[in-house]
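In the design runs reported in the main text, the only information available to the sequence generator was the tokenized backbone. The following block is the verbatim input for one such run; it is reproduced so that readers can re-run the procedure and compare outputs position by position.
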């Protein structure tokens, strides 16, 4: 009887041991599947991390290139700015030269005109002196200086403009002096009147020359 119970006890132990082994085997297989499942699930995440790393590398490359790009843009802008400034300076210089050239020409022309008026007026006044001192019976000498007087008066009328007050005043003074000289035989106090008329003509001429001299100085 004892032997039978002992045999049954060993059989029971063997069955329990086999069952435990089977359970352990099942658990091992299940654990193995779970691990494989986790590994297979984690693979996409690993791939995703690698893609992010690639994007980061591209961004880092752009960051490295930014200083060069900025320097290139600044360089191009500097060249453009220098071109615009140089072009503007060239235009301004050209305009200034044109203005200066025109002012020089105008100044020279005005100075030449003043010189011509002064020279012609001098001839006119000189002839009036000769005519006022020549006796009436010396026809040839009278005609000689009278011709010079008329020529000088005509030239002054061409050089001067009666639309400008200071120039018209000179024309009128010359005309009055010429009329006085040509009628000297009929004029009482002839010499005094000639002297007054000549002095007035000279004063009017000085006023005219002073006005235009100031204009010349303003052009320089």
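Verbatim output:
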């Amino acid at each position: 009887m004892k032997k039978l119970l002992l045999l049954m006890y060993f059989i029971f132990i063997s069955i329990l041991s086999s069952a435990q082994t089977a359970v352990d085997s099942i658990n091992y297989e299940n654990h193995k599947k779970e691990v494989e499942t986790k590994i297979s699930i984690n693979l996409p995440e690993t791939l995703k991390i690698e893609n992010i790393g690639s994007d980061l590398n591209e961004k880092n490359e752009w960051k490295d290139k930014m200083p060069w790009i900025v320097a290139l843009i600044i360089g191009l802008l500097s060249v453009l700015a220098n071109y615009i400034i140089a072009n503007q300076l060239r235009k301004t210089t050209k305009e200034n030269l044109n203005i200066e050239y025109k002012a020089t020409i105008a100044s020279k022309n005005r100075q030449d005109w003043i010189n011509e008026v002064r020279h012609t007026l001098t001839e006119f006044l000189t002839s009036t002196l000769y005519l006022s001192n020549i006796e009436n019976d010396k026809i040839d000498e009278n005609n000689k200086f009278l011709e010079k007087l008329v020529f000088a008066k005509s030239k002054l009328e061409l050089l001067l403009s009666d639309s400008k007050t200071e120039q018209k005043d000179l024309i009128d003074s010359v005309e009055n002096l010429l009329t006085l000289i040509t009628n000297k035989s009929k004029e009482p106090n002839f010499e005094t009147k000639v002297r007054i008329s000549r002095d007035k003509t000279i004063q009017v001429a000085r006023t005219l020359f002073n006005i235009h001299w100031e204009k010349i100085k303003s052009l320089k």
